[in-house]
Amino acid sequence: TQIYKLKQERMTNLVLFGPPGAGKGTQATVLKEKYQLVHISTGDVFRYNIKNATELGRNAKSFMDKGHLVPDDVTISMLEAEVDKNPEAKGFIFDGFPRTAAQAEALADLMSKKNTEVSAMIALEVDDEVLVERLLGRGKTSGRADDADESIIRNRIKVYYEETAILKQYYLKEDKYYGVNGVGSVEEITQRISEVIDNLQG
Ligand code: B4P
C-alpha cells in the first residue's frame, strides 16, 4: 500500500511536443479535462499578452509575427510564473514548452525545485505538408499573423528542425520519449495519447 500511495501522490507532468500545427493545443484542451491537469500553453500566454498590450506582449510580438522563437530568458521566466500560479496542481501539460535545450534544462530545474519531474514527452508526429495545410487552413479564420503566409509557416517548421527537434534526444536519454502518430481524427489521437498516460499512471 505504501508504493500505491506514493504512486497516487506523484504528479503527472506531460510535455506535449511536435512541430507547429501538430495539434498540441488541440489535444491539450481535451487532455486537461480528462486528466484534471493544468494546461500551460506558452503560445496562448504570449497571445493573451499581445492582445492586452502588456510589455511581455510587445516584446514577444515582433518574434512571433516572423515565425521566430521568443528569447529563452523571456519565455522561461514567463513559464515559471505560470507554474507558480498553480500550487495545488495535480500535474501540468506543457504545450509548446520546452522548445530549446536551455528551456528543457530550465524545466528540469523548476520541476526538481517542486519535488517532482517531467513524467513524459508525448511527441505528435505529422508530415510537414500536412502541417502547412493545417496552419494555412487555420490562418483563414484565426487572424494569427504567423498562420497568414506560407513562407512564415515554413520558417516556423524550419526553426522547429533547427532548434527544437533536438529535444527528442534529451528525453530519449531519460527514457521519457513517447512518439504518437498525429494524423487521424482528434478523438483517435486523444485515444493514442491516453494509452501512454494511462500506462504512466497505471
Ligand atoms: P504555439 O502557440 O505553440 O502554436 P503552434 O506551433 O501553432 O501549434 P499547435 O501544435 O498547438 O497547433 P494546434 O493544435 O493549434 O506557437 C506559436 C508561436 O509562439 C511560436 O512560433 C513562437 O513564436 C512562440 N512560442 C510559443 N512557445 C514558445 C517557446 N517555448 N519558446 C519560444 N517561443 C515560443 O493545431 C493547428 C491546426 O491544426 C489547427 O487549425 C487545428 O484545428 C488543426 N488540427 C489539430 N489537430 C488536427 C487533426 N487531428 N486533424 C486535422 N487538423 C487538426
From TrEMBL:
ATP binds at residues 21-26, 138, 184. GO terms for biological process: AMP salvage; purine ribonucleoside salvage. AMP binds at residues 42, 47, 68-70, 96-99, 103, 144, 156. Its EC number is 2.7.4.3. Keywords: ATP-binding, Cytoplasm, Kinase, Magnesium, Metal-binding, Nucleotide biosynthesis, Nucleotide-binding, Transferase. It comes from the Bacteria. Consists of three domains, a large central CORE domain and two small peripheral domains, NMPbind and LID, which undergo movements during catalysis. The LID domain closes over the site of phosphoryl transfer upon ATP binding. Assembling and dissambling the active center during each catalytic cycle provides an effective means to prevent ATP hydrolysis. This is Adenylate kinase. The gene is adk. The chain holds residues 169 to 370 of 371 of the full protein.
